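Input/output pair, single chain:
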Amino acid sequence: MSLNDECRATNTIGKKPYDHVMFSPSFTKEVDRAFDMQVVDLVPTMEAFWNLPTPYPGNPYDHNEFRKYYSDHHLVVFRMNTALRDDDGVVSVTRRESPSDVQ
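Output:
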């Protein structure tokens, strides 16, 4: 099963659903299916972190220049609920993040 079953675009140019989070619901109970998968637009997100003397390659967007520094794929965010006993028998707790925490 893919969390990107809606085929949301995950690349910075074009509209292709290249990236997926694949899992088996029978064996992977930790995936938070209600949260789903979020796609964070990498181009505006990274502009705040640009500290070179040259113009930011995301404004205007220059595909070849942008992917030299970052990627040509957007960020994908999903949650795993690990507060329950895992299939390896270990109990663990992790901090949950929202897509806005990624910045």
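The chain has a mean pLDDT of 86. The chain has one domain: 1-103.
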